[in-house]
Amino acid sequence: MKPVSKVEIIIDSFEVEHVVKFLNEIGVSGYSIINNVIGKGHRGVRSGDEFTDLFKNSYIMVVCEEKEMHKIVEAIRPIIKKFGGVCIVSDVIMRIH
């Protein structure tokens, strides 16, 4: 088992491409994306438009070393500041098989 950081990002679906670009530039080796995330935040309920990606959110999860986590958070900060969203970081234990 290995201690690592888990970065969870919930962001407007239109910004996923930007986030993935940053993750690739940083050298993140893997991530998971779940589209059409719904929920409620300080902007109210976000359920999205049924026919377009307008007002839809996506969830991105990265498990990485601490030094990568800092790079991700700094890369994501301006996107979240401009377009809204949330970035949650937690310490976790990864079981390597």
Can you walk through the features of this model?
Helix 1 (16-26) packs antiparallel against helix 2. The chain is globular and about 40 Å long. The longest helix is centred in the C-terminal third of the chain and has 18 residues, at 66-83. The strands form two sheets. It has a four-stranded antiparallel beta sheet with strand order 2-5-1-6, with helices on one face. The protein is α+β, with helices and mostly antiparallel strands. The protein has helices at residues 16-26, 66-83, and strands at 2-12, 32-37, 39-41, 44-46, 57-64, 86-94. Strand 3 (39-41) and strand 4 form a beta hairpin. The chain contains two helices and six strands. The protein is 30% helix and 41% strand.
Q: Report the end-to-end length measured between terminal Cα atoms.
A: 9 Å
Average of per-residue pLDDT values: 88
Oligomer: single chain
* Fraction of residues in β-strands: 35-45%
Strand order of the largest sheet: 2-5-1-6
Q: Briefly note the structural class of the backbone.
A: alpha+beta
> Which word captures the global form?
globular
Topology, number of strands: 6
H/E topology pattern: EHEEEEHE
| Helical residues, percent | 25-40%
Based on CA atoms alone, the radius of gyration comes out at 14 Å
Q: Describe the biggest sheet? A: 4 strands, antiparallel
Number of helices, where a helix is a run of at least 4 consecutive DSSP H or I residues: 2
Unreliable stretches covering 5 or more consecutive residues: none
